[in-house]
Structures are given as structure tokens and as C-alpha cells.
Amino acid sequence: MNESELLHLLALLKIEGVGDIVAKKLINHCGSAEKVFHAKPDFLKNIDGVGAVLLKKLKDKSVLDIAQKEMQFIKDNAISCCSYLDENYPERLKHCIDGPLVLFSSGNINWNTRKVISIVGTRQVSAYGTDFCKKLIQDLAPLNPIIVSGFAYGVDIVAHQAAMDNNLQTIGVLAHGLNQVYPKTHKKYCAKMEKNGGFLTEFWSNSNPEKENFVKRNRIVAGISEATIVIESAEKGGSLITALIANDYNRDVFAVPGRTTDKYSQGCNNLIKTQRAHLLTSAADILYILNWELESKDENKGIQKQLFVSLDEIEQKIYNYLLQNGKTEIDIIALECDFPVFKISSFLINMELKGVIRPLPGKLFEAI
User: Fold this and answer.
1) Is 367 in contact with 356 (CB distance < 8 Å)?
2) Hey, which of 76, 163, 263, 344 would disulfide with 147, CB 3.0 to 4.6 Å?
């Protein structure tokens, strides 16, 4: 994307009545953002959503001056930009009709992986939620996923920290421009995050963290990922909005169950009860639902079965059963091996890490 096209993309977004959806229609019809500003009204008036009022506003060239100021901020601060037509625009977000026209980013973000998950939840995260989040990311680390969250208090920052502790790329999706940090107390994490990951936003440098921005931000968090994980949530809250948006985008949603009396488990329990989320008890649940295969962080080297693998008594029992019976669902494994499902999941993922079993579509596992 050249400078002229970026300038006109930015200018287009500053025209009242032009949002991401209408802007895409205009660009698709004209061929580029720059051509939109030079197109004749008769050429534009047949586009759905473009009326006489909007046609008049498209003649206002003052928006180019506003866009030029933002362009200067982008240059001065080495901000990376991409439009929905660029190759480096997140692939899954391209398929969201209301995905941002332009994204601004800082750091070292590399989208060269299909394994991207968003982790969201309450700002009042409990010790249980914190421990679960850390353990989940630690167990997923061999798959080298990108961990996306909103850089807020609570579950968000726990997820970012756990990703950094496990040398995973992590991306904070912001509800404001890249000229500030919110909350300010999280500024201490920025440098480390930008070394392996960074920050992403659709908001300009003059945008503050207003309430409505967080709702808009949530669609990016949901749309950018293969799955959204809700660690803890009250009956209402931003993380539930993100989960419902993910449902609308036809993405998988996982929720961590909690006690019925816990305020910050009600949202997760309701998601599971209404079948809007898969029940999540361990990383193994993610592996078999998303059909992820374990691999090392070096994409060229898979985890190979060791010559002499040490299995404990339960793992050996599971392995012997799978070896004898072939592909089997997790519920049947638990039943035949006389062990609860919620506990057997952790044994299965440990056995995958040891390279003795592998997950298959349909919640199946088989011995290698």
C-alpha cells in the first residue's frame, strides 16, 4: 500500500456516514480509495448505502488535511499500517464483514501461523482464574500459538504475561490510539511485548479509551482468532460480548466452568449451559476441538516419540487401552479406564507431549 492510497483510506474514514462496511463497498466498486474521491456521483449513487447526503460529503476534500496529520504521526512513530486488501492483514479478520478498513500496529507481529487464540475475562480475576490461565498457556506452549488479549486488568494481562513467560508471541488489541498506554500501570510490559508481538488498533492517535471503543475493539479480538477463551466472567461484561461476537463469526468459543455461587463464573457457566461455548478443563480440550497437532516451536521439527518414554501408572493404562482398541473418544477412554473426564484430559495432553498418542477430529485419540 503506497502513501497516497493510505492517505485516501484514512480520509475516507473521516467522512461522516462512512464506516468500515460502506468504505469497503466504495473501494470495491471504484478499485481504490483514491479513485473513490475522483469518481463521479452517477458512478457512485447505485452503491447500496450511498445516498445523496453521502455523495455530497464525498466532495469534501478537507478530510485529506485531517488524514495528512495522522500520516505524519504514523511516520514520526514508525507505526505499521495495513488495509483489508493487504497480504499482511490478519487473514481471519478479512472474512469479517465489519472488520476494520485499516489497522495500525507497533512491535514485531508475525501472522505466519494458523494457531491464534484470544483469551478474555474479568478484570477481577481470582487466584483460580490466574492459575488456570497460566497453566493453560504453559500447556499450549509447544504448539507455539499467538496469544491475543485486550491488555486490560485481570485476565488480559495475566494472559499476556504468561505468553511472555513461555516465549510466545502475544498481541494486545487496544481501544485507543498508539500514542498512549491504558491502563498506565501496564506501560512496564510494553517493551517486552513489542519484542515478540506487540499492539494492534484501529483507532487514530487522537482516540482516547472511551467506553464505546472497547465494544468495537472486542470484534477485532474475536475476529482475529481461531477461538476465543473466556477464563472468568460475571453474568454481563465485555468478555461475554467478545464471546457472542465470536459465535456470530462462526468461531469456536471455550469457557472455564466455575462454582454456581461464584459471581465471576456465572457468565462462563451460562455460555456452557446455552451451548455457546465448549466446556474447557485443560489444554487437551482445545487440541481435539480445534484439531491442533502438537509440534515444536521449530516448525520443521515435530515432536518425535522417544525411544524410552516414561509413563506413570494411569498413562500406561490409557496407552495400553488405545493400543488395543484404536481410535477412541475421550468419554469412552475415561469410562473404560475408570477415571473422570475432567482429570483424564490433563493426562492425555501430557501423553501427547511425550509423543505416544495424538488427537483426531471428533474428540478421538489414538496411540502412536
Assistant:
1) yes
2) 163
107: left (phi over 0), alpha (psi -120 to 50) or beta: left
Residue that the C-alpha cell 513467560 belongs to:
165
Among 17-21, 32-36, 207-211, 338-342, the minimum mean pLDDT is found in 338-342
Neighbours of 260 (CB within 10 A): 8
Cα dihedral sign, 110-115-121-127:
negative
Q: Are strands 328-329 and 252-255 parallel, antiparallel or unpaired?
A: unpaired
Instruction: Quote the pLDDT of residue 225.
Output: 96
Cβ contact 71:43 at 8 Å: no
> Which residue stretches of 224-277 are H helix?
238-248, 266-273
CB-CB contact of 118 with 239 (8 Å): no
Of 30-39, 70-79, 356-365, give the lowest mean pLDDT range.
356-365
Q: Which residues have C-beta within 8 Å of that of residue 281, sequence separation ≥ 6?
A: 256, 257, 341, 342, 345
| 346 Cβ neighbours under 8 A, 6+ residues apart | 282, 284
**Under 8 Å between Cβ of 272 and 335:** no
